[in-house]
Amino acid sequence: MVNPFFKNHGPFSIFEIIKLLKINLQTTHKEQVKNINDLVGANVNDITFFHSKKYKDLANKTKASYCITTSILKNDLPKNCVPLVVDNVLVSTSIVTGKFYPDAVYDNFDNSIQDINKTEFKEKVKYGKNVVIGKNVSIGSNCLIGHNTIIEQNVVIGNNCSIGSNSIIRNTLVGDNVKILDNCIIGKHGFGFFPNNTKNLRYPHIGIVQIGDNCEIGCGATIDRGSMSNTVIGKNTFLDNQIHIAHNVKIGDNTIIAGQVGIAGSSIIGKNVKIGGQAGISGHLKIGDNVEIAGGSGVIKDISDNSKVMGYPAKNIRHFLRENK
Amino acid sequence: MVNPFFKNHGPFSIFEIIKLLKINLQTTHKEQVKNINDLVGANVNDITFFHSKKYKDLANKTKASYCITTSILKNDLPKNCVPLVVDNVLVSTSIVTGKFYPDAVYDNFDNSIQDINKTEFKEKVKYGKNVVIGKNVSIGSNCLIGHNTIIEQNVVIGNNCSIGSNSIIRNTLVGDNVKILDNCIIGKHGFGFFPNNTKNLRYPHIGIVQIGDNCEIGCGATIDRGSMSNTVIGKNTFLDNQIHIAHNVKIGDNTIIAGQVGIAGSSIIGKNVKIGGQAGISGHLKIGDNVEIAGGSGVIKDISDNSKVMGYPAKNIRHFLRENK
Amino acid sequence: MVNPFFKNHGPFSIFEIIKLLKINLQTTHKEQVKNINDLVGANVNDITFFHSKKYKDLANKTKASYCITTSILKNDLPKNCVPLVVDNVLVSTSIVTGKFYPDAVYDNFDNSIQDINKTEFKEKVKYGKNVVIGKNVSIGSNCLIGHNTIIEQNVVIGNNCSIGSNSIIRNTLVGDNVKILDNCIIGKHGFGFFPNNTKNLRYPHIGIVQIGDNCEIGCGATIDRGSMSNTVIGKNTFLDNQIHIAHNVKIGDNTIIAGQVGIAGSSIIGKNVKIGGQAGISGHLKIGDNVEIAGGSGVIKDISDNSKVMGYPAKNIRHFLRENK
């Protein structure tokens, strides 16, 4: 994957990287490392990371030339991959990722923006008062952008889209016929950092947000971009007001999500799913296709296809209602 | 009811309407249909809709000249009313409503607005930076409007009102002495559409939002306007921050609603009700007067007057607390 | 405590105050009352209030010269303190507080603001489009302020801070290295008033918001200032998106709060606490240090140090999970 939005500031010599990680390693200092990626995505001359036995099979096949890992896990790496043994794999990975992608660590306001009437979009887009547009933005035909909306850098908007007022978008691919209503914040980094009592260490978010064709995003949504992977909203999926979608979440097509729902990081939601108002879904879960989640539910386990659940923790809706007459 | 804000683009000939619905009907093509309304509100020369046996008694007395209905229900219509038999009554009703009220289907940003200092309100209102005002707006005496606030079209504001900054209001009647704080979005269409795997079909929202005298609306509220009826906030009702009120909800006088509460579509809340933080109320419910709903509760059934409830699903608060010691 | 932001409009003669409260009292009319404060903070020539037996010991030692109280409680006051006996202590206190601090009752938009490029901050701060700054604002070195952000009056921002776009801040002390993301509203009055069927009576909020060094405040936060005390966010505490922190809440250092959490008024949260998404915490509670509260929980009781809780009402997490297999 070539990152569409975040500039890779590499290559860096392996010497620089081992110095950054404060480790000792005998190596030819001049070798260049081109990029950082996960075990599957990394190529020759890239660096990757391996922090859990779960990924042993993937580690065994990685093409990466270097791998940040532990003294135990390193034995599962192939011969072509030089292990960089560290105490905390994720923290070290974060540091190296921040070296390659320094623009992905903090999300300060975009200083590159211009008034839209000073850009090429002046003729092409219908826009309100006080609209500004950042660098590396593309907007299709027949689009509307409301008052005070800020399209920050790294945004691609398809055709026939309507963006509301007071919204802020960055690092996002928007399909065709999409409606994004007012006060939305899309593409900001997620709530991802390593806790540390002196000062928490933020890790880079090099993923983006992808919003499929025909979607509607309600007022006041916050949709964070991914850290290593992307945050994805499938086609024709509709979100009501005040919804929070955390980083790396992937939502299928034709899904309907009512007001004030929150979906925690890295969860995967299927197609044709219906989620009632104020429901919450924990992180790293898999919710199948055609699932119905009643309003107010708290989902803390995977849900298989075609299930209907309710409650906190969410369970089969019939059982829940029988137990709670 | 003459719609105060949405322009009726009719009359249309019945010929146009049956063509739009793709149905066969022997009729005098030149008859004009003036408006669309529900079974009770419709008059001679109007069209109405009848989709459930529940409304049989109302259907029997309707004055409408035409009625969108099914082949079974049509037998309950009076003789003066010509049935238009369709497969899906609500979808067909939505299509016809959109024909009469095309401005009520989508809520793109209001392109009619002007800087307030170019309007009649320049002298009358105290306002912040970057305030804009749409068409068909009226503002009483002694009002304040904060920075970046967008009063879109179709808004009536009473006397002595204070609107905060970064708020967006449209299609709304605001009483006297009302405070609307920052970042609110009031009068936007609700989350109303017919799911369809190719592309969901939005239905028009021809209702408005009414906010009674002496109300306070907290920061970050989203209050959607009604679809066929109005969304109503009673007098002296106070809403805390981050509250979502869906379309067609009606809230009585002197009610107090704490932060992050969500009320789903078409529910009716009584007078002197107290709702604790983060509580959720499902759609189409009736909550009586003087009811107290504990914070975090999930209400999925009607609640009678003077009850105190707690839990998910919400039940008598004493029972809940006894069971959850 | 000298209030850092709200101007004390006193002193007022005791004659004016007893007239305001509509009570009869034999007194030297010319005595001046300097300030209003709680039982502990009040000094000689100040007025205080005493409304519950709980505070008997504090009442007994107050230095205040006057005390708003009831006919029963007055007997616990020291001899140097003249009781002002009223029907409703809190309402009377609110009225007198509003006399001393009239600017703390209502939060209308700040009319004192100027475009930042007309202020001393023009050279010192990096800022976006349409940024405005109120009176009595101080900003440290190396700070960023995003587009459309409104720094209203009474704000002190430390060094190396990044404020996002579309945010509104007032009556707030911000430490060093703080990040406040987009669409936040910080320092507004809380949801504090006395219900009254004709017109609710708002009480003044003379507290402020304090945000410690190294904090991050996510998008769409609402953090209300305190009424009598302050709302405090400890150092290196991170808040995710769409969080609501009510008035007088105090949060310790190094705490992590996930998306859509709500904390009701006057609750105290310890250090190193972790709160999962959508959890809610009732008012006036004490949550100890190192506590973990699972996402979606509803906390209605104090939680002791080092506990892990889950559920609604929240209980020991192991018990909850065992009971809900």
Structure description:
- Three copies of one chain form a homotrimer.
- With 325 residues, the first copy, chain A, is an alpha/beta fold.
- Chain A folds into two domains: 12-104, MurE/MurF, N-terminal domain (Udp-n-acetylmuramoylalanyl-d-glutamate--2,6- Diaminopimelate Ligase, Chain: A, domain 1, 3-Layer(aba) Sandwich), CATH 3.40.1390.10; 114-323, Hexapeptide repeat proteins (UDP N-Acetylglucosamine Acyltransferase, domain 1).
- Chain A has five helices and 37 strands.
- Chain A has an eleven-stranded mixed beta sheet. In chain A, strands 7-9-12-15-18-23-26-29-32-35 form a ten-stranded mixed beta sheet, with no helix packed on it.
- In chain A, a hairpin with a 6-residue loop joins β19 (193-194) and β20 (201-202).
- The radius of gyration of chain A is 22 Å and the shape is globular.
SSE blueprint and pairings:
The structure is a homotrimer of 325-residue chains.
Chain A: E1 12-13, H1 14-20, E2 32-33, E3 35-36, E4 46-49, H2 56-60, E5 66-69, E6 82-85, H3 89-100, E7 114-115, H4 121-124, E8 126-127, E9 132-133, E10 137-139, E11 144-145, E12 150-151, E13 155-157, E14 162-163, E15 168-169, E16 172-174, E17 179-180, E18 185-186, E19 193-194, E20 201-202, E21 209-211, E22 216-217, E23 222-223, E24 231-233, E25 238-239, E26 244-245, E27 250-251, E28 256-257, E29 262-263, E30 268-269, E31 274-275, E32 280-281, E33 286-287, E34 292-293, E35 298-299, E36 308-310, E37 315-316, H5 317-323
Parallel strand pairs in A: 3-4, 4-5, 5-6, 8-11, 9-12, 10-13, 11-14, 12-15, 13-16, 14-17, 15-18, 16-21, 17-22, 18-23, 21-24, 22-25, 23-26, 24-27, 25-28, 26-29, 27-30, 28-31, 29-32, 30-33, 31-34, 32-35, 34-36
Antiparallel strand pairs in A: 1-2, 7-9, 19-20, 36-37
